[in-house]
Each structure stands twice: as C-alpha cells, then as structure tokens.
Amino acid sequence: MTTQPPLDGRTVSTGGLRVAGDSHVGKVRTTNEDAMVVEPERNLYAVFDGMGGANAGDVASQTARDAISSYVAHRRGMDPKSLLEQALQHGCHAVFSASQANRDHAGMGTTAVACMIVDNTRAIVAHVGDSRAYLLRNGRLQALTRDHTIVEELVDKGLLSLDEAERHPYKNVLSRNLGARPETRVDVVEIELRPGDRMLLCSDGLYGYASAEAIQYLLGSGDAPEHVARDLIELALRGGGGDNVSAIVIEAPPAPPTSTQVVRTSGALAWWQRRQRFLQIARERGLTRNPIVRGLDAEEALDLVALSLCQAIFHDLEKSTGVNVWTFAQNLAGGWFERGGEWAPLRGMIDILGMSARSVVDEIRAADPPLGFLIDVAVSRALVVAELALGGLLAERLRHIDGELIALHGAMQETIDVLPPLEETTNSGEFVEQQTIPFMRPDRVMTNPGGVSPETISAIEKVLTIARARTPPRAEAVKQILTALQAISSDDGGHFSSAVLAAREIYGVRTVDDSGIMPLFDALDQARIMTASSVHQISATDVVKAKALRAISFAHQRLVSAVTGLVLEAVSPFADRLRDAQALTVQLRDQVSGTERKRADLEKKFAETIDQSLPWEKRGETEW
Amino acid sequence: MGDMTEDSAEFIDRVRVLRDEVLATAEHGDRDPPGAEVFEALLRALQIGGDSLASGLDLGLHDAVTRRLAWGDSEEVLLADAEMVFDRIMTATERAFREPADRMVIVEAATQVAVTVARVVSLAAVQRAARDRAARLREEMAQRQLKDVIGKQRASLMRLEYETRTDQE
Q: Which chain A residue is nearest to residue B82, measuring alpha carbons?
C-alpha cells in the first residue's frame, strides 16, 4: 500500500486538528529521498529521510513509509505508544528485507520521525535518526527528539564536549536508522497536547539550513499550517537548500470558547439582531404611554428609552461590563427625579423594559437553548445592575430628605425655644411642662461656630484611624466608641442627635450595677486616651490638629453625657418603685393603727359591759 | 504638684484667670457658682501635667460631686452644670489662647474631667439605685409583717365583737 503525501501543501483538518505537510527536492539534489505520511483518518503523521546511493534512499524512505502506514492501518485497538514503536520496528524490518533482497539497494536506510495524535489531547512521537519533532507552546520552541548521531552519543557519554561536537567531521553520521539492521532502538515520547500547541516534524534539510529562531518565528506566526509549511520550505531553500526538505505542521484544536466569549460574540449579536422585536414588545406593553415620555412621539420615545437600553445592554454584553446599563438607569431616573417626577412611573417604565428584555431572551432561548441560557444570565445581570443604580439614587434622595427633616426639626425646636412659655399665653392651669434634660435634647446645637471644615474632617478621620489601629483587638466597645466619635465629630450640622443615637447603641443592654456600667466608662476613658495621643501622630499643622482635637473632644463629651443620661434613665425606676413601696408601707401602717384603735374601743366596750354586771361596790375596778 | 515648673505654674494661672468667665461668678454673688468643682478639677488635671492622659478618679472631684448630691442637687443638674462648664471652657480657650499646643492641652484636660464627672455621677446614680433596691426590699419585708399583724388584728376584732355581743345578750 502506498500513501501519497499531500505535497501540494494543502491543510487537512480533522476534529479541530489542522495539519499540512510540504516537501521539496532542494536546490542541489536531483531526487527527493524524503517521504511523508499525512493520514488524518488514522492520526498518523511521519517524515522519512532516506539514504543510500543509486536511488536507494528514496526506496528506503518510501518502503518505510508504506510499511508503517500499512502496519498502523491493520492494527486497531492497540496501545498507541506500543503501536507506533512496533510500526517503526516493522518499517525497519521492511527496509532491511528490501535491502537484502536487492543488491542495488544494499546498505540503504532511512530516518523516521512519526507522530500519532490520540483524542486530540495527546501526541506520541517516535523517532530513529536525525529527523526531528518540535513543539511550539506559548511561543516557545522546544525539541521533542534527540538526534541519533554518533557525535551526539559521544556527547551523551561525556567523551565529547558540545564545542567539539559542533566541529566534528562525523557530526551527521547516524548511529541508528531504519534498515541498517533488522531491528533498531526506537525512542518514544508522549506529551499532553494543549489548545493552540503546534508541532513540527521535519527532515534535516530544514533545520540544517534554517535557524531555530526563524523556525520558531514562522511556526508561531499564527498563519494556517499550509502557509507555515510552505514558508518553512522557502526558508530552507533561501538558506541554501542543500538537501531535500520536508515539514509537517500539526496544530492542536483551539480551546473551546468560554461562556463569556460566547456572550461577547454570538450572544451580543443575537441580542442586537432582535432590537426591533424588543422595541415592538416595549411598545405593546405601553412604554409610549408612560408619563416619563409624555409629549414625545411614540417612535421618539421608543428610540430615546427602549433603544438606548437595548444599546446599553448590547455594549455591556460585548464588553462584559455593566457600566452602560448603570449609566442608562441613572440618567433615566436622575432626569425624571430632577423634573420632580414620582417614583411610580419610573418603576413602571423599568418594569416594562425588564419584561420586554425577558421576552426577547425567551425567544432567543427557544431558538438556541444553550446560547439563550447564557444570554439569560447576562441580561438578568444587566437588569440587576439597573435596579442597583436605581437603589443608589433612591438612597441618595433619602439621605437628602433625612438631612432636610433634621434641619427642619432643628429650626422648629429653635422656634419653640424662643416662644414665650405656654403658661403665659394660655389660661389653662392644668398644663404641666415636662422637665427637659438638657443633655438629652437631640436638637441642641454644638458650640461649633462655622461647622467642621473638610481639612478638619480629614484630620479627624486620620486621628480616629490611628486610634482604631492601636486599639486591642478584643476592645470592641472602644472601637465602637471611636466609630461613633467619627460620626459625631464630623457632623457638620453640629446636632446632638447623632450622639444620643450612638450612645443608645453603645449602651445596649446591661445590668444597672457597677459591673454593668463601669466597663462602659472604662471604654469611654480608653477611647479618650487613644484619640488624645493619636492626634499628635498625624501629619498636619498644629492649628488643624487643635481643631480636630476640639471637634473630637466635643463629640466625646456629648457622647459621655448621652451615655450618662441613659444610665440615669435606667436607674430612675428604682427610685419610683421605692416610693411606691414606701407609700404602700405607710398605708399598711395606717391600717394597722386604725385596726388597733378599733380593737381598743371594743375592749373598752367589753370591759364596760362586764363592769355593769358586777355588784355596785365592785364596779369601776374592771380593767380593759 | 510639687514638681510643677515655673512655666506650667504660669500656664495654670492663665487658665485660672478664665474662672470668672467660665463659671459666670458675677451672676451668683457670694454663693459657689454651679460647676465650680468641674473647673477646680480642670486646674488639678492641668497641674498633674504629663499624666493628664492617664485614666483615673479625681478624689477631690468625687468628694465635691458627692457633697452636691448630698445637699440635694440631682445627678441631672450636676451633669448639665458640667456640660455648661465644658462648653464655656472650650469657647474661652479659643479666645484666650493663641497657641494651638496650649489649646490642645486644655481641651485634653477638659475632656478628661468631663469623662470623670460623668463617671462619678453614674457611679453615684448606680449606688443610689442599689440603695433604693435594698430599701425597697426592706419595705417589702415590713409590708409582709404589717399584713401579718393586720390579719391577727382582724381575728382579734372578730373575737371581741362576738364576746361583746354574747355578754350583752
């Protein structure tokens, strides 16, 4: 059986593996003694370089080629490594037999480098002689074979240095080949084949006339294997072409695309192709009637809102980000709120867009389930991003409203404070003003004229960061206090409410005795010491340090007062209960004395009754 | 205190000058102005100087607070006075001391005193609560005894009423 090599250099492809081979007689020789096997159906690839005078070289290489190819074709199910090794032994025996049978062919032989690809994940390389196999992985070229030459073996045994080997007159004399003897030693290596790997099988006509760097460059060029094989041959010819040149380039299948890549490419495309459908669904669901787009044409409204979102999702799918959808949602909601819009229409608009997107995704999923699944995940993520953007905007609005309410409340309290007492304006004598504990008034303004400057706030943050870092890990209360101090001291409004709130959190639930309360003050004292010493460690001017310390000290004093207020609040029921108990005791004592008086009256009455019953002269002597 | 340098003595004198302003002594005539104990504690904290960062209880302040509580001032009033003095010290310091380092020393001491006052007041309140709790227990025991007595008195009354009625018949 004769296998003709694809000398036209065409690339053959099987299971994602791409292979191309090319051979050339060279510029000096008249016959091409090289032979090749390129059999994708058996995953067998090989290069042979025949030797021997009077046309025997090409006979040897072709005999070996045919024998090996036939051997592999008729032995299925064998372990690939053993199969390849035995195939080369079989080729050796065939060449030897042929040389013995014909005197003209006596002494002929051939090199061989053969490769078998298993499951596109492993490559088994067997070789005899000086034909080589190379692997290009991650841009690096490495030889998989070692030449079987006499000089090489002398180097291996330490009898020759590398420099001597380069200059040795017998450096090209083979120590092994197929055909010199009935059997030979075959070297076999197995490597894992990774996506993108490239292998090169070649005769010495290539590497003998081209540098390793040039081979590496061409092999790693990314061109199709057929172009690479052709260019390699060209390279050897330009280098002199003193020998026959053969090269087979094998390219491992590329890695399967990741889900992200699928979404970025076909996912984004599938989404964009259905944009008209998206607009149609949005229109059907009433997007054009939403108050947000009131005053716009239906087409204009669809373009402005639905198409913008469609584009944003497309770009986010393409780039695996969420920034476009985020920006879209923020612009839509921000613009609406700035116009004084209410929440409900915005919610309605987002719902319409979300449901339209889901419908489109469902349609993609029906057409292509795996792609639809990936798009579903990606579009869901985009919609979540939109919701998050809305949430952020709402939180911001809430903060504003909160600030306005606090300011309003403060202004209201100030107004109440300057009003004349209620007793003077009304005639009702029943009104009793509740006692106001000064330090518990949340609206009390700090003595902090001009507020806290950004520079001071920055210094405060630094001081408290240092203090926190110096706090022992288990001193949770101290850390809590330091955090509270930051909030209170940076409060530009200068209100006391943050101190009261923080105090309540720090106080938590505790027993009203020394062991419950005193640790609280220990922590407050510890926090004070930490901040006072940390303020000297920040890099700032003395003026800024002084301002930061002043603000922190104010905050500390307010916090301490608020905590003490809570302690007093906690102890007040004890006094009330004692008063109640004392009142009850007094009541019981009164009851006892009342009963005692009544008993005395009765005894007196009883004595009188007895006295009446006595003779006259004995009366008046009865005691009661 | 014996280790005070001339400089620190002079510094404390400069703070002492602020007494009238901080305590508004003119408004109170011959009486001790409210919060005087806080200002005195501040001066003591400044005298201790380098140790002013240390945590601890100022016994002088403790005595003064206890005395005021014994005279009938409530803890709330004491705390409000301390807060007022603190605020005024901060304002007066801003005005009277040009050097940031001097201001920082006073602010540190004032904060220390504020925490100490709060601690003493809280301690007093907690101890009062403990006394109240014990007194309530005693009251409850007395109430149980009184209830026993009332029970016996009622039985005695019933017997007397019965005997008186029988004798009259």
A: A561
Q: What is the pTM of this model?
A: 0.44
What three-state secondary structure class fits A50? strand
- B56 CB-near residues (< 8 Å, 6+ apart): none
Give pLDDT, residue B155: 87
- Per DSSP (E only), the strands in A79-197 are 109-118, 122-128, 132-137, 140-143, 187-192
**ipTM entry:** 0.86
Tens of pLDDT along B68-123? 888 888 888 998 889 889 989 998 998 888 899 999 999 999 999 999 999 999 98
In residues, how long is chain B? Answer: 169
One DSSP character per residue, A40-74 reads GGGTEEEEEEEE-TTTHHHHHHHHHHHHHHHHHHH
Instruction: List the single residue in B with minimal CA-CA distance to A576.
Output: B132
Q: Which of B95, B119, B145 to mutate to test the interface with A (most CBs of A within 10 A)?
A: B119
pLDDT at A175 over 90: no
For residue A141 the two structure tokens come to: 């070229």
CB-based contact A246:A21 (threshold 8 Å): yes
Written as six digits, the tokens of A146 are 């070692």
Q: What is the CA radius of gyration of chain B?
A: 28
Q: Residue A374: how many CA atoms within 13 Å on its side-chain side? A: 22
Query: Is B10 near chain A, with CB under 8 Å?
Result: no
A420: left (phi over 0), alpha (psi -120 to 50) or beta: beta
Per DSSP (E only), the strands in chain B are: none
Neighbours of A162 (CB within 10 A): 7
Mean pLDDT computed over A448-457: 70
